[in-house]
Amino acid sequence: MKTASTKMIRLLIFIVLALIAIMSMYPLFYMAFSSMKPTIEYIKHPIALPETWYFDNFKALFYRFSLVRLFGNTVLYVGLSMVACLVVSVPAAYAFAKLKFRFRNGFYVAMIATMTIPGVTFIIPNYLLMSRIGWTDHIVSVVVIWAVSAIPSTVFLLTSLMRGMPDEVLEAIKMDGAKYHQAMIKVVLPMSLPGVVTVSIFNATNWWNDLLTPLIYLQSDHLKTVTVAVATVLNRFSSDYPLLLSGLLLASLPPIAIYIIFQGFIRKGLVIGAVK
Fold first, then answer.
1. What is the CATH number of the domain that holds 197?
2. b (16+ CB within 10 A) / e for 52-74
């Protein structure tokens, strides 16, 4: 009786998870199939499978919108933001986790409290600041905004991870005469690698999908990101849905590939942070 009820519960859980997976994957498959249709075929049969494999929408995106430059811009901005965020967050997380200094808990709570403030409230002050120092329509504005906005959550996750580091290991490397930067590079950073990779993946995907920040701070076409360019396609070719869906599909593939490739690091990093 108990075995039958257990199987029933597992079956219900499987059905619920399968429904969630189908609902999550449906937009991706819809974009993939719709992007391979001519406009007329899409208008006649928007839900049906494509009659023939039609790749001209991707060719049009490549020639009209310089996809290589758009992807290059996005990768450059995300990479610089990731480096800037980690350069500040890793030492800060180590300080909150292992060093003792006055007002440590107060600083930590104040920093974590900033995560509860809606990001939209910073738009006008940040734009006025960037405009005042002349960083609007420059990649520095997007890199700084992305990196700074991700520091609290990055420090929060890495602090939880570093609190689980054995103090004996840190004391041993100090007794061997290692300096601060040597301890960070040889011990702290390697032991924090799963958490660093995990939080970097989350930050990178958020930045890649961010439309608002580059749309506000970058006005020149040669500086735009993929996400902003897709929005431009929507405005210029509002009736060409297969072309638009082709752009959306290409813009969504890199974050999906990152999750698939680094899913092992994500699971490991989240488990380490959870059990301290």
1. 1.10.3720.10
2. eeeeebbebbeeebbbeebbebb
Q: What's the farthest any 2 CA atoms get from each other in the chain?
A: 75
Count of domains forming the chain: 1
Q: CA-to-CA distance for 218 and 136, rounded, in angstroms?
A: 7
In a domain, 208, yes or no: yes
Give domain status of residue 47, yes or no: no
Q: Would you give the end-to-end CA distance of the chain in angstroms?
A: 39
Q: What is the DSSP string of 93-140?
A: HHHHHH---TTHHHHHHHHHHGGGS-GGGGHHHHHHHHHHTT-TTSHH
DSSP state of 224: -
Residue 101: Cβ-neighbour burial (10 angstroms; 0-12, 13-18, 19+): exposed
pLDDT by residue (tens digit) across 121-166? 888 999 999 999 988 889 999 999 999 999 999 999 899 888 888 8
Radius of gyration over every alpha carbon of the chain, rounded to an integer in angstroms: 23
Domain that holds residue 118: 71-274
Q: Are the C-beta atoms of 239 and 43 separated by less than 8 Å?
A: no
Q: What's this model's pTM, rounded to 2 decimal places?
A: 0.82
Burial class (CB in 10 A: 0-12, 13-18, 19+), 197: middle
Q: Which two tokens stand for residue 173?
A: 């490397």
Residue at 140 is within a domain = yes
Produce one character per residue of 201-224: b if its CB has 16 or more CB atoms within 10 Å, e if not. Answer: bbbbbebbebeebbbbbbeeeebb
Q: What is the per-residue pLDDT for 63?
A: 80
Task: Give the pLDDT confidence score for residue 83 in this predicted structure.
Answer: 95
Q: What does the chain come to in residues?
A: 276
* 11 located within any domain: no
User: Are the C-beta atoms of 218 and 142 separated by less than 8 Å?
Assistant: yes
